[in-house]
Amino acid sequence: MRSSNIFFAALAGGAFAHGDHGGGSQKPIVSPNANWMEKHMAEEHHADNYDATSFFSLHDFDSSGNWEPREILRTYGLMDESNKHVTSERRDQIVKEILTLLDYDNDGLVSRDEFVRFIDHERKTLPDLGTGPGHHGDDEYEYEIHHWEKYHDENTKLEDLTHPEDIEHFKKHEQMEEEEERLEALNKRTIVEENIPAKFRRD
User: What one GO molecular function would you report for this record (predicted)?
Assistant: First the structure.
């Protein structure tokens, strides 16, 4: 696990998983014709290379393996103050639109497999629903500021934690670190083989 000093430096400068609105890491330049997902990843996460699994995991805020309606709203920036004007009716409509696209088994949730199917197999992308770039809000950031010593002390182990919310938060950060490392590895590759349609790949 990374040391607490490294984590806190990243957090203070703007952690990858929550965006950087204060001038930390440089935001990638995206084409005006980029789709909403590309714009969101550049604006909120400062990443220009990602895959469907990484995108899903970064927005599975409770690490449940599914996107629930609240997570759909947060992904689209509807938990952020910039969208406080959006009516409850419009929020319900946005959730319904996304579930209509992604919820293949109609259980009211979006699973990782459903999301990968939509992005990779059907070659589609999340639509721009007019809510901006999708700022996730600052409540998670404030929680981390108060508890970073506990979760990221290099001597802290999962079994040392007793409160369910602490355990879940600890697990989430471990997952986020793994996804960040995967994205960093992807960004170092000129060509991401997994993104090339199978018929064009070399045997």
Answer: calcium ion binding
CA nearest neighbour of 198 among 131, 120, 142, 146: 120
Low-confidence ranges of the chain (pLDDT < 70): 1-25, 138-174, 176-177, 188-203
Q: For residue 58, what pLDDT is reported?
A: 93
Q: List CB contacts of 201: < 8 A, sequence separation 6 or more.
A: 193
Q: Return the pLDDT at 167.
A: 52
H-state helical runs in 68-138? 69-75, 88-102, 112-116
Provide the residue ranges of all domains of the chain, joining segments of one domain with +: 4-191
The DSSP code for 66 is E
Burial track 150-172 (b if 16+ CB lie within 10 A, e otherwise): ebbeeeeeeeebeeeeeeebbeb
Reported in sequence order, the residue ranges of 64-196 that DSSP labels E, i.e. its strands, are 66-67, 110-111
Q: Which amino acid is at 175?
A: Q
CA distance 150 to 152: 6
Closest among 12, 129, 24 to 76, alpha carbons compared = 129
pLDDT of residue 119: 97
